[in-house]
Each structure stands twice: as C-alpha cells, then as structure tokens.
Specification:
The complex is a heterodimer. Chain A contains seven helices and no strands. By secondary structure, chain A is mainly alpha-helical. In chain A, helix 3 (48-60) packs across helix 4 (65-110). The mean pLDDT of chain A is 83. Helices cover 78% and strands 0% of the residues of chain B. The radius of gyration of chain B is 19 Å and the shape is globular. Classes of the chains: A mainly alpha, B mainly alpha. At the A-B interface, helix 1, helix 2, helix 3, helix 4 and helix 5 of A face helix 1, helix 2, helix 3, helix 4 and helix 5 of B.
Amino acid sequence: MNKDSILYKSLDLFKVFFKIGIFTFGGGYAMIPFIQKEIVENHGWITDEEILDIFAIAEATPGVIAVNTATFVGYKISGFWGGFFATFGVVLPSFTIILLISYFIKDFLSIKLISYAFNGIRAGVIVLIIGAIKKLSKKNDVNVFNIIIVILTFILSAFTDINTIFILIGAITVGLSYNILKRKKES
Amino acid sequence: MMLYIELFFTFFKIGLFTIGGGYAMIPLLQSEVTSKGWATIDEIVNFIAISESTPGPFAVNMSTFVGVKIAGVLGSIVTTIGVVLPSFIIIIIIAKYFYSFKENFYVQSSLSGLRPAVIGLLCSSVFTIFVHNFILSSEQLLHISKFFEAVDIRGVIILIISYFIYNKFKLHPIKLVLVCSLLGIIAYSI
C-alpha cells in the first residue's frame, strides 16, 4: 500500500487516536499532553506552534476538545477521511467500555458496599466540578461584565425553569451586543 | 423510532452548546435529560463519576451512558453520534475556510459572553447536586435542633475532606474517586 495514500494515513490516524482515546482519563484537558507527544513528537505530523493553535480553536468551538482536536488534526493530515477516522478512533474505546460497564451497572450498584462508595464519590464529583470552575475562572479576567453574567446565569439556571440553551443563547447575544456597542463607541 | 430521533437531536444540541471542555456539558445534559425523565440526578452523578474514571472523552462517555440506558446499544450509538457530529461538522468547515477563526470579532464577542455563562452554569450544577444529595429535608433546615437530621452530615464531611485532599495533593481525578469511595464505605458503614 502506498505510504502516502489517504487510506494508509487515515488508518494510521485511526490507530494513533484510538491509542489516545484508550489512555487518557479524566477528560479533554488531560488529553493535551498525550496528543502533543503522539502527534508532534512521535509522528511529526504537526509542529508545536500549530498544535497550540489547534488547541485554542478546539477550546473555542462547540463540542468536546478531544473530538475537535482529532477532527482538526485528521483533516489537516488527510482531508475529510482523515478527520473521520481520527474522530472515530478517539471515540470508539470509551464508547465500547461504557457500553460494557452499563450492562453491569444495576447489579454493581445494588451491592451495599458499592452504593456506600458511590455516596462518597458523589461528594468527589462536586469537588471535581468545583475544580473545573476554578480552572475556567483563571482563564477569564475578573471584571464587572463577567461577574454579572456569572451571577445571572447561576440564578437563572438554579432557580428558574428557563431552558439552559436559551440561557446560553442569551449569553451569546449579550456578548455580541456588548462588544458591538463598545466598538461603535470607540470609533 | 421517534425516541431515537429525539435522542439524536437532544444530544446534537448538547454537543453544539458544550464549549470549553467536557464539564461544560454537565449543566445542559442535566437539564435536558432530567426534564425528559430519561435519568435522575442521582443517575447522572453516578455517570459523571464513572465517566471521570474511565478512559476517553468525558462527553462521549456520558452520552453513551444515557443512550444505552434509554434505548440500548442503538440508543447509545445515536447519542454518541449526536454529541460528536456538531464538533465534526464545525471543525471541518473551520479547517477549510476560516483559519483566522479565532481572531474573528464576532466569534470573540460571542465567546466573551459564553465563557462566564458556562462558569455560572457550572456553579448552578454544583448547587443543584449539593442540595439534591446532601440536604435531606429543607423544612427541617430552619430548625437548629433538627439541623443534623436535615443534612447528610457524613456526605458533607466527605465533601470537606476530599476538597482539601484534592487541592493539597493535586490528585488525579481517578485517585480522588478512589479516595472518596473509600471514605464513603467507611462513613456509611458506621
């Protein structure tokens, strides 16, 4: 098979991202060092500078960072099918594992000791989400605009029945209007 | 058939509006899935815990869990494709046409509103999960004498302990899950 052929590269991408999919625990951000090692160092498909750009875009676009990155890298290397096989590769391991776990989960959870463990884990989940909140907060400036939005979305989400998607659309609208008005004022 | 279509569109929506990382999916998934009666908050929190401890993208794990619970293997395929498709489509478009995507004024402006909103939503999730799991009875909360019956003290203690351990030792999420399971077994067996 021709090494440069799209098919060969796509299968290679599938294998690499399958590996990344299996070995990263804990979500998208944890994948970043792994992706960098495999894609930049081991395969030389992309440079370090390009990978930073890709991560920035992957973070700023909707969807899961891991999937965004896989699609982007795959597409850059081997067009549409590269993107497809990279994405398929990164998604397949978790999908399969979760499917297996889900079949045993009801019996698993009915074991008393396990349900006690999960009571404890629930507290842990709260700690993890708080950790994510702190991490995300560091990336944003502390200004009046941000604080108002944080408080407003918290109140609307926790205490009203307003659909979360409408809240997010509202946030986009506020962001757009605020910046458009600001730009008008400056010119 | 209708169920599969509904699952697909719900998870497509979730995938479309999850910005800034897997956790951002939690508030949206929570509201969509509980309002449709597809899962309870308890089940969602269990899924979160397991999704954190298993390999792979968090959002994919969560979608697979809910999908298989509602509609078996086919359901999980539908939800997973649903949640992945928006990213896939958008990235292909971006990679093709807008390399200067991140510099674009309108994109930046939209993100400036979205980023703090995601933080607010996550705070709301924490609040909801906390109240749901640890506040056993809101009426009794107001009576000082009944306070200890109204709150799951063991849970709150585990919460405080694990918060300190997590931050002091910068634990990997999996280790935190293990520590909490141990604490849970100890605390609730007493």
